[in-house]
Fold:
Amino acid sequence: MKSISGNEVVFRGFNIATMDPDSAEISCELSNAPLCDLTKNLEYGMLSGAAIGVEAGKIKWLALEHEIDRHELTFAQTVHGEGKLLTPGLIDCHSHLVFGGNRSAEWERRLNGLSYEDIAKQGGGILSTVSATRKATEEELFQTAAERMKSLLSEGVTTVEIKSGYGLNLDSELKMLRVANRLGLEFPVSVEATLLAAHAVAPEFKGNPDGFIQHVCDTIIPQSVELCSSVDAFCETIAFDLAQTERVFERARQFGLNIKVHAEQLSHTGAAALAANMGAISADHLEFLSEDDCVTLSSQGTVATLLPGAFYCLNEKQKPPIAALRENQVPLAIATDSNPGSSPVLSLLLIGNMACNLFGLTPSEAIAGMTINAAKALNLDKEVGSINKQKQADFATWNVNSPTELVYNVGGNPSAGVYKLGKRTQF
Structure:
């Protein structure tokens, strides 16, 4: 009873999906009685009849509700669940929320028969977003990104990774990163900012990708260090080759930044294995990943982040090798990849449904992919992603009976309330 101070905010009356595979080993803080008798579904780490104590924004303890009642304990505040589901706050571990303009007109033109190449020749594609982003003021970028952020937060998201990559010059890349960080200050959400300057060749370096990569390494990365935690690169036939990608990652490592990679989306380049061997925390997309690559990801502890929104919106056919990833026990994360060109998606719950229906993930894999494994993809799994003592008290509560329903339903929003650091969010 020493750790029960009475100053806690207590969450009780919820069905709790801890998303911790070892939740059966958790013991009641009051009596040392194992909570395993309450664990109904080990896939989700379900607890019923348990309470969570929160103090100073962190999970302080787990206890049996009847033990709390037996000891007649009182607390600073009690949040009553009334049978609702409680999960860790959701995590969108790959997004591009900050950009100028939109490309809905290009999407319509593609539906009317124009190819992506035709549109690019007419000034469309990623460079149209680069132009709009460069022209936009920092305030304009913040306001439009804020509306996108609100959509994610309304569905229980409490942590978001936001990439740059639509500036492709120093001033605009820094502008995007500042906006990303401001979103984390002005909204009840943790933001992990990632530098993606190696997204496409800047217009000023047309025909000279090596020169642009040198500029990224010599100028943009060194001056972005205080604004980002990770560096990403797009290794693909339409972007940068393996050697150029390696140069970016080597430079990022010199500054102690995490590395991530857009890899094997449209073809097999070897980028996922390269990044994993260089210590990448995640490799993302992965439709053309090989079985040998799966072995490498597993051996290096690199998370496979799947992006079914881009697969759907681009009408792709090649699916990630889910069976091989499972066989090699590679952690599977999922994310919106929210961006104006290939995945204009603002619902992580919809992505969960897509991951199941398009890629064949199980519901428990999908929900792990937006909680504990998404946290691993951001190197944050010691802080968020599951219900464990000393982790942040980031919770999503739901008007559903089981976690499966979160990714079963298409459309609608079953959110019953979101809590960041133990406090109910408002935005």
Q: What stands out?
A: The longest helix spans residues 138-154. The two ends are 37 Å apart (CA to CA). The chain has a mean pLDDT of 94.
